[in-house]
Amino acid sequence: MEDEKGTLVQKLIDIVNEISAISDYRWAIKKQYCNLARRLKLLTPMFEEIKESKDPIPDENVKALISLKEALESAKEMLRFGGEGSKVFLVLEREKIMNKFQEVTTQLEQALSGISFDKLDISDEVKEQVELVIAQFKRAKGRVDAPDVELYEDLLSVYNKNSDADTDPAALKRLTDKLQLVSIADLKQESLALHEMVVASGGDPGESIEKMSMLLKKIKDFVQTQNPDMGAPANEKTEIPVIPEDFRCPISLELMKDPVIVSTGQTYERACIEKWLEAGHVTCPKTQQKLSSTALTPNYVLRSLIAQWCEANGMEPPKRLSNSRPSKAASTCSPAELAKIDILLRKLTSVNIEDQRSAAGELRLLAKRNADNRVCIAEAGAIPFLVGLLSTTDPQTQEHAVTALLNLSICEDNKGSIISSGAVPGIVHVLKKGSMEARENAAATLFSLSVVDENKVTIGAFGAIPALVTLLGEGSQRGKKDAATALFNLCIYQGNKGRAVRAGVVPTLMRLLTEPGGGMVDEALAILAILASHAEGKAAIGAAEAVPVLVEVIGNGSPRNRENAAAVLVHLCSGDPKHLAEAQELGVMGPLLDLAQNGTDRGKRKAAQLIDRMNRFVEQQKQVQVQAEAQAQSQTQIQHSESPSTVGSIDR
């Protein structure tokens, strides 16, 4: 019993320490969250005195402290999101955030009020301090500072605009300044925060998060338009691509192969940060902050961005070192939680379909909830059972099973287990035959698994690509986006490009490009840019009469879309004067000159290549015309030289 008391009190101390380690909060909620964190830090002396006391804790106080632990856990998660979460979300959903804040504050006040301080061996000073905290919580009820109305209205205005042309540049400028989204690092951090929300939703981001992602793209395009050279070295003159600063490890300064995030939020190459930690360091190399944990979290988003950048610049994506040792996640589930998972596994193997359905549904939710659950569920041996349920004839059970695998795949160590359990054929089966939601989640699972390079080959070999192309063409909006994301990632591997082309992806992409209000232009162009480097892809894009659409995008698209359209056109025009002539007739030169001046770094390079080819093509046309005119003139002279003798013979 004493051990359990010590564990409980130590857990309370650890939670408050974790809250204290949160360095800052987003501007929209900064004042309230700072006040809450400060009040919670004042509880530490009480916990320390309880821990040092030799007196037993009465049962009623044990129950109150357990309630307080649950309230502190809720507060920690809320505060952590306030420090690391999406800036856009915190402004748009401020009312919901503040309601949650009031709910957590009430929960804390009630838990503290339930403690009988007279029955605890704590000093009068500490007791008075805790009573002061309770009084502050009571006074804080219902008190919320007024929001920044202009910021909220600007965000709402941009959020609800479907067209870039309708967006007010002045509103975008105010947003970038107030939200502090003015650099590549700021935009990347916000993008990662939104990605984390998608991950936390179990691959089901919902319409609001999707719209926030589109809003962030508008902000990013605006920032790049205002500062086209953002992030580029001043002396970049050569064709050799310069590695973006965010893709370099801060320790080695080399392009990262296996980027991982440490507890301060900084990203490093896994091998470099592991050496740093093995040398006995306990701080973050870049910020010098003390690491609250030595856990290393794979940065899948950055790894995918690096692979895209390599592909776009004609470089081989970096391979992770085979001797790199991913830190095996340790199970921290309680015996009660492990017992619950064991019961659910027995239900999974039941012959009763309702037992299977309910167990798969519960495992889906548990795996969605947190990283510890993902580790525990996998360690308990759930993955093979879930894989077996992918072929069930019950649609709901099938959907639960594939979504549970999606949530489990978020954990790096689980990806290999899912693949080795033979999940890919089952996931492809769901992708073809399941309900729409099951198909969407199957596509998202394939994307998650394909983050590991060798899995791209396996997934492609088991026939996933034709099924993804079908979903891209006929799925819901979210289904199309899931399919596009998976296809993009899979087609980074050269062998999958031909499979995608043969599956008919190019006509589908061209339809999405020209669909009014379809919202898939970004994804379609990104995939086309990858496929254009493949011989079959280039031929299919040419046959699809893509040049007019590409010229239109180069003239009027967003910075990233102009860049990708130019990249596709470079490949099409390589060795094929027919496409060059068509682009010239459509007036591409003006937009290309503008792109060469005002585009992204890659957009400028692609525009310069096209302009050079266009100039050479025009010069060749002039030479051909001059030769034709010279030949025609020569023929005329010959005819004139023969003309007098002929006339003379007629006169005679």
Topology (SSEs and partners):
Layout lengths: L1 H19 L9 H12 L2 H9 L6 H26 L2 H6 L1 H20 L10 H17 L8 H12 L8 H10 L5 H17 L5 H21 L32 E3 L5 E3 H9 L18 E2 L1 H13 L22 H14 L4 H17 L1 H9 L2 H7 L6 H14 L3 H9 L2 H11 L2 H15 L2 H9 L2 H11 L2 H14 L3 H9 L2 H10 L6 H11 L3 H9 L3 H10 L2 H15 L3 H9 L3 H10 L2 H51 L1
Helix pairs in contact: 1-2, 1-3, 1-4, 4-6, 6-7, 8-9, 8-11, 9-11, 10-11, 14-15, 15-16, 15-18, 18-21, 20-21, 20-23, 21-24, 23-24, 23-26, 24-27, 25-28, 26-27, 27-30, 29-30, 29-32, 30-33, 32-33
Catalytic activity: S-ubiquitinyl-[E2 ubiquitin-conjugating enzyme]-L-cysteine + [acceptor protein]-L-lysine = [E2 ubiquitin-conjugating enzyme]-L-cysteine + N(6)-ubiquitinyl-[acceptor protein]-L-lysine
GO molecular function: ubiquitin protein ligase activity
Enzyme class: transferase
Q: Helix content range of the residues, please?
A: 55-70%
User: How many helices in DSSP terms?
Assistant: 33
Strand order of the largest sheet: 2-1-3
Tell me, what's the shape?
elongated
Unreliably modeled segments: 232-238, 322-330, 645-652
Mean residue pLDDT: 82
Organism: Nelumbo nucifera
Domain U-box: 242-316
InterPro entries: Adaptor_Cbl_N_dom_sf, ARM-like, ARM-type_fold, ARM_PUB, Armadillo, MLKL-like_MCAfunc, PUB12-19-like_N, RING-Ubox_PUB
ARM repeats: 381-423, 504-546
